[in-house]
Amino acid sequence: MNDAPAPRSKTKRLLVEALIAIGLFYGISAYFQKDMLKDTAPVIAAKGVNGTSLSLPSATGKPTLVYFFASWCGACKLTSPAVDNIAGDYPVLAIAADSGSDTDVIAFLKEKGYGFDAINDKGTLTTHFGVSGFPSLYVVDARGEVRFVTRGVSTEPALRARLFLTELLQ
């Protein structure tokens, strides 16, 4: 007698397991994002550590990627290159948190070769945006409304898709 499961039941089991895994992923993700700002972002006009004028919302009329990172953050090392690439096509408001002095942030950006400037936050913006972990990313439309939030590693295609969708829906 053959005790091997029928191919149909094996496929069904794999589908159920995949749906459970996806559900768990989104549930955990939603839990980590529960305190993140999800309505109107504050108006920001500041100088970055390299002297660049940074603002939110952007004067370009394009959606802005707001990127909270820390120089010591391992996950940020995976996300920062994507943010740097995106900065050539969309406004990026990078905010360094818990990363030391302005000189420390400048040295970090230079060492990594990042072209984006950053505000060195001493806790005000981090608190206002509800950031509880790094990296934390927000896509803010031209009117200053938060359209997407993400905490943790994110890829360039995923970030570009969110920015593109926001641009389409403005």
UniProtKB/TrEMBL annotation:
Keywords: Membrane, Redox-active center, Transmembrane, Transmembrane helix
Name under which the protein is recorded: Thioredoxin, putative
PANTHER family assigned: THIOL:DISULFIDE INTERCHANGE PROTEIN DSBE (PTHR42852), THIOREDOXIN-LIKE PROTEIN HI_1115 (PTHR42852:SF17)
InterPro entries documented for this protein: AhpC/TSA (IPR000866), Thioredoxin-like_sf (IPR036249), Thioredoxin_CS (IPR017937), Thioredoxin_domain (IPR013766), Thioredoxin_ResA/DsbE_sf (IPR050553)
Protein source organism: Shewanella amazonensis (strain ATCC BAA-1098 / SB2B)
Transmembrane helix found in the keyword field: yes
Record has Transferase as a keyword: no
Transmembrane parts of this sequence: 14-32
Domain Thioredoxin: 35-170
Gene Ontology MF, one: antioxidant activity
Coiled-coil annotated spans: none
One Pfam family from the record: AhpC-TSA
